Fold this protein.
Amino acid sequence: MNSRTALLLFLVSVTVIWYGVIWIGQLAPIVLPPPHLVVVIMAKEWSSLLYNTAVTLGTALTGYFFANAIAILLAISFLYLGWLRSLATPWVIVIKNLPIVSVASLLIITFGDSPTPRILVVILICFHPLLANLMKGFEEVDPNLLSRFQTLHATSWQRFRYVLLPNALPYYVAAHEIAFTSSIIAAVIAEFFFSRQGLGYLLTEAMNDHRGDRLWAANVIIALLSAAAYLVSRWLESILIPWRREAKYPPQANALNCFAILPGAVWLSAPWGIAP
């Protein structure tokens, strides 16, 4: 099955299931609006939706950039400084497992209503998969290969450049498929808790106003952003490790993989998925 056919089948199946759920459950538009009403509200309020989408995307990209920088810096530091890894690992685990509700409350008290707490939420949610995969990639290096490089009197930089880094790249790229898509959801969660702009704020406003059409319009946009983030991560893999792309992921599977995450992204970004 090629990408176009997969995309067409996905769109048709989602539309049929959407209308079917409304018909079977006899749901009012305020609960679950039909797809054509969602399209109408997206066309009618496109300027507001576009602005708030840009805000959410900016928060996600900024936070994700710093999450990558922190993860790479810590992974390399842990690789060469064992004492630092022993010291920092408990802190990393604690930070990873802190409830986002309590963290959000602390951040809003500390930084107020500014972009900083939203960016920090994205960093806290996204950096751990990147760090864990990088460390795994460094640890899974063939010891015989490292020994051979040492026998050839390779410097520490040469061992890192030609052995450690190439081995860690597949793990690092794989982490993007989770972390990059999660950055969109993380930005929405942050805006849901404390923001006066962004898609998360639109979700809160739509719920308070009982606007199901606007609520689902925001959900559809969030799902599309998550799918786009997934496609970017797949493109990144083709750039960084092109020799593994065709062997592991046939081209015709890309569309299926991409759009398979859309329902989950909608579910996670809907109010019941992100409410405390």
